[in-house]
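Open question from group meeting: does this chain pack into something compact, or does most of it stay loose? Before anyone orders reagents, we agreed to write out a predicted structure and look at it together. Recording both the input and the output here so the notebook holds the full record.
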Amino acid sequence: MKRRTLLTSAGAATAAIAGLSSANPATAAPAQACLEQLLLAQSMPVDPLPISRASADLAAATRAYKDARYADLAHALPRLLARLHASRTATTGHPQESLAGMLARAYGIASSLATKYGDDAIALTMADRGLTAARESGDGLTITAAVHVLAITMRRDGHHTGALNLLTSTAANLGADRSDATPQLIGAYGSLLCTAAYTSAQAGNTGDADTYITEATSTADRLGNIVTPGVIPFSASGVNIYKIGVYTTLGDTGRALTHAAAVEPDQLPTAERYGRYLVDTARAWNRHGRPDKAAHALLAADSHAPEEVNRSSVRELVAALIIAPTATPAALRELAIRIGVH
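Structure tokens returned:
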């Protein structure tokens, strides 16, 4: 079946970021408070940046996200967004389009960061602004990435049907089945399918979830060992991580854990992806009735990406594990105290 038919039928500055160590809670403003500054970034009085510096600063922000240094990023992103806005306004022609694309990617990072902190309202606003900037850039892949981020925020806000329609229509129009499709375009297609699968699972639609995640698997096979770039790279290992979440959501935890075991950690390219993999595995083990194994997965996540564990949704999981009727490691209680779970 043609992919289009399947989709239709299944229905901060570099120094500000790189130079920061882990935020000291005694001296730094809470990262969540910095998220509100993202809403005001466009009106901040700042100087514009040369394109080369803007590109370097955006790369630093991307690295901070991939390294799971969320507190550092939260403090630096408002100023980065402000300077990208100023730079775009100060230019014309192709440089302005390039800066609009950078702004779109920065807003995508801001939306993903707000999601990490559980602030869905700010995440949705950042995603919407990112799509506006992406359209100004005129770049198809930039627009696709912005649509992907917006669909994620829509799903989290309960708009499953709208998010799914946005994901599938965008994927169907990419032309990823063409023989001359680039790895980046194929990876974008696969990422949209992964999110479509998880969105379908959240809506309780097992058939569509299976269809989309199967197509995502085929897409990853088509790329082989290539890992496409982006804040969230697309690869076979990334698809397996999505399978953990999809099947845990559908209640098939045995299948979810089978896919968790298939993930090769050394193929996960970033600390953020590794931390996400371990947290998702912990959720699967907990739903499977093994809070002890869930606790070990969370402790491993804490050792590799501690800021991935210090999030509201994960704190809720830690709280549930502490009161579980079966024994859990003593180190879990130490983690709970450290992240504010009582």
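Observations to bring back to the group:
The longest helix spans residues 93-116.
Residues 1 and 51 are 44 Å apart (CA to CA).
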